[in-house]
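Here is a protein:
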Amino acid sequence: MEIKLHSNATTTPRTRKYIQESEKTDGELAEELNISVDTVRRWRMRDDCYDKSHRPNTIHRALSHEQESMLVFLRLRLALSLDELLEAARLLIQQGISRASVSRMLQNWQQSRMSKPDLKQTPGHFVLDAFPLPEIISHKQGELLVFSDRVSGYMAVALRERGSEAMPEPLVGFLREGLSLPLLSLTAKPCVFTRNLAEALGVPLYTAPQESWLEKAGQGNYHQQLDGLLNGERFDKRLGLGAVLLEFEDLLNKRIIRSRLKNLTPEAWLKLNHPRR
């Protein structure tokens, strides 16, 4: 069997075993083996004769295509800086990911540079993204709705039942009264659902522009268990989909501070600058 020694090792496993079994003093062994007394003492205190692993304690993990898509989505919809995106990535999507990995990912998706929203603009003009949910993730819920306000970086999520065509009253009520800011308009892909939702809310509906990154994101394989897509520090696979989404929403709105909001979270910034009456 081949034994790999540390490049600076002054002893072999056979010598180390001899040290551990010898009744000679530390000084006598050091002189006999032509090594330092500290080396003798160190191996006498060890229970084995082999070098410890040379691998780093923290192993930086790679991002899957699907995880990269989620991070690009958060970057663009919430105007997150690199460090804010890194925190979101570690908490929600992939623990242990390095800053360099997130930076390279943004370069590969051509999203390294980002224009910051003007805080003088009125928040409340939401973008609605609707993502189909495979049955392997949820048998009952067929669509994930994400409402995001880029000015404040605030977001809200909702689930739509599979095969349902009716406008859910709880969703309309939540969007009217449950958000931290009034919903003034919707920007979304026009369809029967989005048109009916805008009409129920009494707000204008604007057509979402074509975005090249969405086409690239759509090439991923999302037909897998939730724990195959998410591996963040705060992801608990024992929770159902709804509870996971609420936890993520809470972290993004109330925990991750934004430098462009004068080091406040979206929730705190809205409460200070745009209190809901």
